[in-house]
Amino acid sequence: MIPEYCVPDLAHTGASGIFLFTLAFTLLLVGAFFVSGHRRAGRAAAAALLLLPLGMTNLPSAEANDNVAQKSCPAGYHYDASRDHAKPAPKPGEVAAPPAAGKTPEASTPEASTPEASTPETKTPEATAPEGPALTVATPATVLRGQQLPVTINGVKAGDQVMVYLAVDPSVAVTVKAQQNGALVAHLDLAADMLPGTYQVLAHVDDRTASATTQVQRNPQVERQAGADLGPNVKFTVSDRGLDAKDGTKIVNWDIAKATVRAYYGYDKKTHTSDLENSPYAQQMAKLSDKWAAEVAANCKAAVAKGEKPAAVFDSDDTTLYGINFEEAINYAFTPAKQQAYFDGKTATDASGRTYDFTNPEGGPNYMPATPGMIKVVKAAKENGCTIFGLTGRSANQADYSVENLKRAGYVDAAGQPLFTKANYFTNSGKLIQGYGEEAGQPQYDLGKDGLGFCTTRGTKCQTVEYKAGTRQHLMDQGYRIVGSFGDQWSDLQGGRADHTYKLPNPAYYLPDRVFQAKAEPTYTGDHPLAGWEAKNRAEGMAPAQVTYPSVAPDGSSGRAPGVQGDQLPNMDVVKANIRNYYNGGGNRDLKVPTGIADKESSNYIQQMKQITATKGQEVLNSCRAAKAKGLKPAVVFDSDDTTLFTYDMEDYGMSFAFTPALQDAFFFAKAPFEGELKFPAPYQYGSQAQLDGKKVNYLPASPAMVEYVKSVKEAGCQVVGLTGRHEDQAAYSVANLAAAGYVDADGKPLFTADLYFTKPHTFPKYLDSFCAADIAKKGKCSTISFKSGTRAHVENDLGYTIVGNFGDQFSDLKGGFAETAVKLPNATYYLP
């Protein structure tokens, strides 16, 4: 209801007076000019003289308004003292009048603050009322968005039209009529997507206005379900070499792949053992070995019946000998040095300085168990007339150990004699000529004969297919007919020279021949003995360039799904190849940068980070400005690792993707094996070393695109908040690292400060009780989701901020709500549910 003393602005009232005044003045001039010779002009001048006083009487009286205390009017109206029949208006400084429909109120909004939890309702000092009882407003201290806000207005008279509205949002308003003197209650409908924060509620009756404040909060029941559907992809089609790794969401996460493979093999990380009887792998091998044993027995017997010399050829690792326990011990990061140390039962040190202890508690070498079902296959071949040959990529100096391992694993005949002997066990010397054959009583064979042999593509080094196909050809040259070739890698089988091939499942590693079948155009042509075999093997489905993993559940359960096939699961080496290509983490030989160190200037990961901050990030910046304009205290929350700080080099080069809290702490505080200076040339900088409180520390570099983005968040009016899963002992270090990485404002002041940087405490504060109670009762600790969502609720409800954006590289950083927009950053190196 607009007070009588509020009249429309000049555009509505004064315009007619000005028009009449201007018209009269114009006619007067024209008439005066022509008055001597034009009778009509003289009449016009007379008319002008008559209109001039009329026009002047319609002009607003500035003198009248200047001499009377001004009263407030809604937007689009001004105070006219001549129409004010009431007492003087409120003095300057009192609350402004309500807005006109669709207009933003002119009342100033106090800075948002957190009401005390013990206060049931808030009141403001009584507004000066011209007559009648004082007008006051009371509201609950807090209210949930999406609900109704009850507003009690005291001091009304029967018949009063009371307008109630939010100071910064005139669309949230209601007008009610008082039925009696005293008080009335109005209800404001709060939208479910209303920004949380502290709001001023105004009530306006005639020329009286009063206000109160209330804090609008998110509904915790709704928020805890927020993001429940967030999660990684479960189906992937990738390049076996990672050549198309451009989108981090389309790469199998390393931790998810590892959990899947462990489930398949029944590997227990606590006991470091595998289930070789009941695991999905063991079950699949039982079915395969039953079938293969029958086939190879029949084929051996048939060849003998024809008077031929049948033979069966077997690879070693994960064909006859089970190597998953070894792969786990080396974190799926094979090197010949680690393999030899494992065989010998000794320790090994990798390039990053990390030590692996393979000592056998019983002393001596570590021997591998037999691959489930394969003893049965080998015995079936032997018992039906086939000669057994071993054909491995292991080196010549490992031959004695390997043959002894096969014997200990159970590859013996009914009389206890070994089925594999040094005389029929071929190893790869890596040279053109197998010098070891002469010692074993076999004729030497030349794999690079006259430049037309098998090993001709890489100088003096024999590739895997060249070596294995060439050795099978050597056996054929000796008169053997190879009825079956068995291997867990496609490169064990490619190149032909066998009647039948048998591929064992192996998602633990992948050893493709990078020369054979490496491109569309054949490598081997003309008279080369492998000419034509690339196309033939490709047609047979060997070593496909694209592999599809139909189901990869984030909890690893796909690895134990009923009837699961090992080659349908993510292969650890294929996953690693995709990750390294995505991060450009293959190192640089020319600059002597080792594998596992990422390019900090150019990679698909960097491009994706820039794209996210330019799109979703821009939405958050707009929200910062909008919330600030409403008088709220907007904030944006950032996780640390791989959100603001880049950990790739530490994860790959430093830890071989086998993170432990102890190793992380060692990296941060420059302890072994990270005590040395971490220095590589640009653009491969591997963090930096510094002094913190008199002690040496290693700092991580900033995540790509994030320094400039966090600065823009601050400039847009948002408070920067840090929220990490790191423990509280790392808090001071983390804040110092962020500043050292460039997260400072134009004056050099840190954008992340200790008071708004939250870490996991040793003792959880009371505000987390309701969030963590169920987790602690069930698992004895507070989950990441509960800790982070509870902390965000504290930032809003207790500290008075409005979280408009939440950035994290893990879905657990984002689930549980208490933020307007959740922004997921890519991370293929680890997964924290």
Task: Give structural notes.
With 833 residues, the protein is of the alpha/beta class. Helix content is 30%, strand content 17%. The protein is built from 23 helices and 27 strands. The strands form 8 sheets. Strands 5-11-10-7-8 form a 5-stranded mixed β-sheet, with no helix packed on it. A 5-stranded parallel β-sheet has the order 17-16-13-18-19, sandwiched between helices. Strand 26, helix 23 (811-814) and strand 27 form a beta-alpha-beta unit. Helix 1 runs antiparallel to helix 2, helix 6 (280-305) runs parallel beside helix 9 and helix 16 packs parallel to helix 19. It is elongated. Residues 10-69, 85-97, 101-120, 124-130 and 432-443 have low confidence and may be disordered.
Short account of what is shown:
The protein has 833 residues and is an alpha/beta fold. α5 runs antiparallel to α15 (572-583) and α6 (280-305) packs parallel to α9 (374-383).
Features:
27 strands; elongated; 23 helices; alpha/beta; 833 residues; single chain; 5-stranded mixed sheet; 5-stranded parallel sheet; 17% strand
Structural class: alpha/beta
- CA distance, first residue to last residue: 56 Å
Number of strands: 27
What's the overall geometry? Answer: elongated
In spatial order, strands of the major sheet run 5-11-10-7-8
Radius of gyration, in angstroms, nearest whole number: 40 Å
Average pLDDT number: 85
Helix percent band: 25-40%
Report the β-strand fraction as a percent range. 15-25%
The number of distinct helices, counting runs of at least 4 residues, comes to: 23
Unreliable sequence segments: 10-69, 85-97, 101-120, 124-130, 432-443
Largest sheet: 5 strands, mixed
